[in-house]
Amino acid sequence: MPLPRVVAAAVLLFFASSSFEWASSAASDLPRFREAPAFRNGPGCASAPTIHIAMTLDAAYLRGSLAGVLSVLRHSSCPESIAFHFLATRPRRFRRAVAASFPSLTFDVYRFDPDLVRGRISSSVRRALDQPLNYARIYLADILPSSVRRVIYFDSDLVVVDDVARLWATDLAPDYVLAAPEYCHANFTSYFTDRFWSDPVFPSALAGRRRAPCYFNTGVMVMDLERWRAGGYTRKLESWMDVQKREARIYELGSLPPFLLVFAGEVMGVEHRWNQHGLGGDNVEGLCRDLHPGPVSLLHWSGKGKPWLRLDAGRQCPLDSLWAPYDLLRRDGRESLFVDL
């Protein structure tokens, strides 16, 4: 028997209300962010190449990711020529947040399946380093469209204070797969355990490189995805993760050591100005640090201390004030925090 019109209307109203409440709840599980200014191309951008930038998106680092995007656009001479590629375990959830803050941004969000690495991750010195999304950079060549031949990978705890086109112009000829700032003064042996160095086979993997292996930070990399795909580098990285998980504990520091094992000594060097890293302190205490000597194009809060957490707690480090102008978090009644960028 058909429902009376009044009852049917009440039922429809109930479900419409319930759906609205569910959608509102789903949308409100992330912080609210402001809309950034629109950035337009300057003179001479008609022939500018499309610059591809990859980042990850998750709830804990979303605030940092959006700040990073804003910093790139703010300092670019051709911001409309930049395409962003985001990896997330729940793309739809974060697509709305990015679009709300950057309505005119060219971007896409791709799903990263955590099962790709869940069985390959071993515990490290800091829990954040053990999250599957921290390993997503290994799979960029597999997830991004084949038409994306080259990409800059950025971590979510940095801001760019220079035109990213200068980093994009890094020459990877004749056959380099990666470019990044190298730090050859660092003690390379400390990134691996005694078990690794005492093994009769493992250290030989580092022999025969173009140069002596040096530490590099994987939070800023220029990557030739065509060469990566042709060389099967995803599998090479996975194989070292499998050794760590199934054979012997050969390192302690998340996704970095496999990159060192595969690429150290085979990296095209980039000026240190493009990764003033370590501003988050060490991986245990996250103490304040100063800038390294020299010019600065990119500030990177690698380490335990993140600027947004320290600012919220009222325990900011001096350099955290350089991150704050890019923070898009909406604070009721306190919109003046968004300075004139």
Automatic annotation (TrEMBL):
Q: How does it sit in the membrane?
A: Single-pass type II membrane protein
Q: Fetch the InterPro entries from UniProt.
A: Glyco_trans_8, Glycosyltrans_8_dom-fam, Nucleotide-diphossugar_trans
Gene Ontology terms: cellular component: Golgi apparatus
Its pathway is: Glycan metabolism; pectin biosynthesis
Q: Cellular location of this protein?
A: Endomembrane system
Q: Which Gene3D superfamilies match?
A: Spore Coat Polysaccharide Biosynthesis Protein SpsA, Chain A
Q: Please give the superkingdom of this protein's source.
A: Eukaryota
Q: Which Pfam families match?
A: Glyco_transf_8
Q: Which family does it belong to?
A: Belongs to the glycosyltransferase 8 family.
Q: What is this protein's name?
A: Hexosyltransferase
Organism of provenance = Canna indica (Indian-shot)
